[in-house]
Design a protein that fits this description.
Blueprint: E1 2-5, H1 6-16, H2 18-23, E2 27-32, E3 38-41, H3 43-59, E4 66-74, E5 77-85, H4 91-94, H5 105-110, H6 118-128, E6 133-138, E7 142-150, H7 154-173, H8 176-189
Parallel strand pairs: 2-4
Antiparallel strand pairs: 1-3, 4-5, 5-7, 6-7
Helix pairs in contact: 1-3, 3-6, 7-8
């Protein structure tokens, strides 16, 4: 388990599918609350899951359809979704998509190489993280897969600790030039949540 940027991971996967996306003329959008979104999970396992979801979304998209990845932070969690316009998933199949070896009759026609284990493995991994994975779909229109992760906030806490230490140093020195410089740097870097960088400039 480790802290990693799932937004950056999603961008890498999106780029890796660029040729397939262009071949199907998909209308791609990427929505993210922040440029960097840290979660706490097994990085390699989550990469496997997210890559599989994105791969399926391209595979089952209709030509020229919408293809969207969204990453949203809410209440200490990060919600990642992969959406595609295409055949979707029939109501009768939704309850079984995470079952081992399950493949709907329609998906068998579009995916002749798949084993039906991808979503089963994804759910097994997510369950081990004590998190959730679920699907929403309208058959003949779209499908959207959702993942929920624990949001990692230790970086922000570390930055706050460093900020307080620097503030104490500033108060002790009581030098106008230093104080002015310190405040300017705080203003410059606070939006980046990277107060630690200030140490390089003081």
């Amino acid at each position: 388990m480790e802290s990693f940027d799932i937004a950056e991971m999603a961008r890498e996967i999106l780029i890796s599918n660029e040729q397939r996306i262009e071949k199907k003329h998909l209308d791609v959008s990427f929505e993210c609350d922040n440029d960097r979104m840290f979660v706490y999970a097994d990085r390699d396992a989550i990469y496997q899951i997210l890559y599989n979801l994105c791969d399926n979304a391209v595979k089952f998209s209709r030509d020229g359809g919408a293809y969207k990845i969204s990453i949203i932070a809410k209440a200490g969690k990060v919600y990642t979704s992969v959406y595609n316009e295409g055949q979707g998933i029939a109501d009768d199949d939704i309850d079984y998509v995470f079952d081992r070896f399950y493949k709907s009759d329609k998906s068998r026609g579009l995916d002749k190489t798949g084993t039906g284990l991808g979503l089963y493995i994804a759910k097994t991994i997510i369950d081990a993280h004590h998190e959730e994975i679920w699907v929403r779909s309208v058959y003949g229109s779209f499908a959207s897969l959702y993942l929920r992760f624990r949001r990692r906030t230790i970086r922000a806490a570390t930055s706050l600790f460093r900020l307080r230490r620097l503030n104490k140093i500033c108060q002790k020195i009581k030098t106008k030039d230093f104080t002015k410089k310190f405040k300017a740097l705080i203003k410059r870097f606070s939006r980046r949540s990277n107060v630690g960088v200030i140490l390089l400039y003081i």
